[in-house]
Write the structure tokens for this entry.
Amino acid sequence: MKKTLEHNGLSITISSLTNVIGFASGYLSSIDSIRSFGVFAAIGIMMVFFNCLTCFGGLLSYDAQRQKSGCSDCFGACCCLGRKEEKTDRLPPIFTAIFDYVVSTKVSNIVALLLLICFVAFGVIGAVNTEV
């Protein structure tokens, strides 16, 4: 966990601060709904940032200890503590084979990129044509 935070802590901090500043700038808007959205989004991002640095790190290290000891995943229920986990694949091999094929081909990557461009274009068109 220490290595992870040393490696990614600065980028998490910078991206969180820029997002907070960007959404907080919505407070300068003359439209009340945009002002409220900006303030609440900035507060939410700050809360997620502090959660990532404190609670999430502790829970992640606790889960790593649980996995290392071989205990089963039971969402913290006391009745399951101490049971050993059976080694089974979560997905059938056919799904992993399909997923590997879809992710690794250039055609599927191009289709995904085109879909993303279409979604962004429709979003921009919708935002431009929205009447207040």
Q: What stands out?
A: The chain is about 70% helix and 0% strand. The helical segments are 2-24, 32-53, 55-69, 93-104, 106-128. Residues 89-132 form one domain. The longest helix spans residues 2-24.
